[in-house]
Amino acid sequence: MALLSLSGVTSQAPKLCLGIKRNRRLKRRVTVSLVADLSEKPEIEVEFRGPKKGRDVVETAKALSGEKLLRNIMLDNNIDLYATYGKLMNCGGGGSCGTCIVEIIDGKDLLNERTNTELKYLKKKPESWRLACQTIVGNKENSGKVVVQRLPQWKK
Ligand code: FES
Q1: Which protein residue has the closest C-alpha to ligand 1 atom 3?
Q2: Ligand 1 pocket test target in 69, 82, 88, 91 with most atoms within 8 Å of CB
Q3: Ligand 1 binding pocket mutation candidate from 130, 131, 151 (most atoms within 8 A of CB)
Q4: Which of 56, 78, 90, 104 has the fewest CB atoms within 10 Å, counting from its CB?
Q5: Which helix (H) or strand (E) holds 131?
Q6: Among residues 34, 33, 30, 10, which one has the least CA distance to residue 21?
Q7: pLDDT per position in the chain (156 positions), as tens?
Q8: What domains are defined for the chain?
């Protein structure tokens, strides 16, 4: 007899349990248990490339899939997002200034589609450009790596 159950106890992480309780021919009880921790959430690794203090640097950050906007990941990890004007005049992530432009070099499939705000501000820009404040990193189920070029308008 096999028993398969999924249990979630509020004080513990959810577990998947598989148990085999008895074997009649051997007339003794056999118990096999398999326990898997299902609480681990998928993560997205983000690599940022771009100029900083006169040289190109690479910085990395991680975020739970689908939990954060790219802008918030950058600000939380002290990764420069704005050029000088944007540092002073950005809209705080409201999607009304167009100063938080980044270029997605790799991993665009791990992000949401361009929003209507982006379609308006980035109409004449390359398809790979996004507004960081409109870009959701992950969809809560996927995981992988996204490579982002900061300040693509400065790229040579
Ligand atoms: S911060 Fe203003 S549009 Fe993104």
Answers
A1: 95
A2: 91
A3: 131
A4: 78
A5: strand 129-131
A6: 30
A7: 444 444 443 445 555 555 556 656 666 666 655 565 566 899 999 999 998 877 889 999 999 999 999 999 999 999 999 999 999 999 999 999 999 999 999 999 999 999 999 999 999 999 999 999 999 999 999 999 999 999 998 876
A8: 2-37 (no CATH), 43-154 (3.10.20.30)
